[in-house]
Amino acid sequence: MVAQVQVLRGRSALPLAAAAAAVLMVLILVPSYFDTYQVQLLIYGLIAAIAALGFNLLLGYTGLLSFGHSAYFGVGAYTVAFVAEHLGPHSMEFYLLVGIPIVAVTSALFGYICVRHTQIFFGILTLAISQVIYSLAMKLYWVTGGSDGLRVPRPALLFGALSFSGPHGFQQFITLYYYYVLAISVVCVLLLWVIVHSPFGKALQGIRDNEVRARFLGLRIRRFRWISFFVSGTFTGVAGILWVPLNGLTTPDVLYWTYSGEIVFTALLGGFRNFTGPIVGGIVFTYLKTYAVASTEYWQLLLGVVLVTLVLVLPTGIVGAMSRAGQRLRQRRGAT
Amino acid sequence: MAILTIQILNSLLYASVLFLIAAGLSLIFGVMRIVNLAHGSLYAVGAYVTAWLVGRGIALGVPLGWLFLMLPVGALVVALIGIVIEPLLLRPFYTRAEEYQLLVTFGLLQILEDLMRLIWGGTPLSADTLMDVLPIIRIGGLYYPAYNLVVIGVGVVAAVMLWAAIYHTKFGVMLRATSQDRRMASALGLNVGLVYVVAFGIGCFMAGLGGAIVVPTQAAVLGMGVDALVIAFVVVVIGGLGSLKGALVGAVVVSFVRTAGIQFFPELELAVLYLIAAGVLLVRPTGLFGTA
Q1: Whole-number Å distance between alpha carbons of A260 and A232
Q2: With an 8 Å Cβ cutoff, is A330 touching chain B?
Q3: Is some CB atom of chain B closer than 8 A to the CB atom of A143?
Q4: pTM, whole model, 2 decimals?
């Protein structure tokens, strides 16, 4: 038994892959057992998870707290809205094709400016820049619809092979879009997993832990932070692109700085010191917020209390607390 | 010419309120190294409490002149809230990473915003009776409410008193010592905990005073605090986090740019402000007067 535990605690990725496969199986089965509303909620959860995962590359792995990630989410969302309104086909692949380069360029540009600073100045700079985008979306109403936002029709999936109209269009769309988002989430998770565990990812963690030492080792710190920012913003932007067709509408709310706060909240809820933390956080936060909004008018109060308690009592988040509890259990078992 | 005068007065009015918010934010950051995201909400609480007190006062038939006393009372209530919050919520975080400090104040912001909704509801709360008590004066050919001049005056007096308190009292010396080196100050026998509580209380008082004096000119509405916070950020970023002079200069710059913006390029007025803030951060991250 002890020997087995030690094998598990080694660097083997096998148990992790097995656990991930099990989770994936459960997720694939969800639409067969739950109604459309629950499936829709879970899509929102997966999208929040992608946004938080992207964000966490910056906070958890690079040690930079961005308070302006709503900008990349919102740029993704608004790009899709513009494409749907002014350019050709209502196809999800087309949205992604146009949207991803635009969020990538945006986050590369803003990242280049923001990584000149760290700590609190970095946070304020990201916040200021996201507020520029917000105020433009709010004020240039003849382009962006102002506070009314822009409507986005339901797109066709898989190069127009699947389109959704007719009486059961919505249910069909939700079920298939669920698998669509799930597939993209899996790709995103795998990509980020590879990035985090690559030499590049290790270098980021080195910079996070000791900037001076990393510089002595010859790492070009600012460039690493820039690339990390770029990747992080792009993933959050992909979440924004996926979010719009589901929501059917984008408003400046997703660009406001409090929305950035929600992304931070999500990552923290799951635990930003873990790779899986933001995924759990994204899904739990979506359910928490939905049920808080449904059960009380004062949902913000509830979320605020949860956040403060979390920071006070569980600073490592859900996943962090669970893994620590698991570790303790294993140690106790090892001792006896 | 008269229009120009009015616009300058309007800018000064806005500057005075902004200074009160930003100076509190800056003071708290300077002493405690905490960026208080709930600061805007404390300003909104000041506005709500004052408007509510004024409304109660009118209902009870208090002579109108006495209602002006409600302005400092509203600010004091916010200071009391601050004195409760600091030891309860912020103290555990001084030794921890600043991410947690930001998050705990963000949680506080959410709590305060909804508590205001819970207590005072969604309808705006107005206290414009106070504005009507004072006469409307003529400037050039145009009319201007005298109350606005009172607001400007309060801003000036607050700036002078804060400056005197920080640079010319014994407590100010303790405050500056703590802000420069907390452990050294503590080793020399200063009660750092007390300094923190008082500094946070003063910061909250300033925010509350800002809300209290602004509420007769515009009603207290939900979300006013969240909006005010980001503008206050712009102010402290331009002036320099932790600098009193910076808060003053930043407030004047922001209010004049914003007034001009609303006049000449209304679509871009907010974007320009944030761009200025981002520009200052790039060129001089410590702001015009910051040392941090």
Answers
A1: 13
A2: no
A3: no
A4: 0.83
